[in-house]
C-alpha cells in the first residue's frame, strides 16, 4: 500500500490479506489434523499457525481502524451537506419574506 491510496483501497487490500490469512489457517489446521506428521513438522506447522494468527489479528485491528476512519469521512461529508441545506433553508426563509413584502405592497 502506498501513501496515495484511498481509504477504500486500503480497506480492500486489508480484506484481501485477511482472506489469504484465513485460507492459510484452514490449510495449516487441516494438515495438523493428519496423524502422519513427524513431531518436527507438527511443531513447525504449529509455529506457523501462531504466526499467521498474529498477522490475522493485526489485520483485523487495521481493518477496524480503517473502517472507523472511513466512517469519520462520511460523517464530515454528511455534516457539510446538512450545513449547505441549513444555509439554503435560512436563505429561502429570509428571502421569501422580502419577496412576499414586495408582492403584497404592489397589490
TrEMBL record:
Q: Which InterPro entries match?
A: CC167 (IPR028194)
Which residue ranges run through the membrane? 74-94
How does this protein lie in the membrane?
Single-pass membrane protein
Q: Alphabetically list the UniProt keywords.
A: Coiled coil, Membrane, Transmembrane, Transmembrane helix
KW RNA-binding (keyword) present: no
One GO cellular component assignment for this chain's record is:
membrane
Q: What stretch or stretches form a coiled coil here?
A: 35-69
User: Where is this chain primarily localised?
Assistant: membrane
Where does this one sit in the cell? Membrane
Q: Looking at the Swiss-Prot or TrEMBL record, what is one Pfam family this protein matches? A: CCDC-167
Q: What is this protein called?
A: Coiled-coil domain-containing protein 167
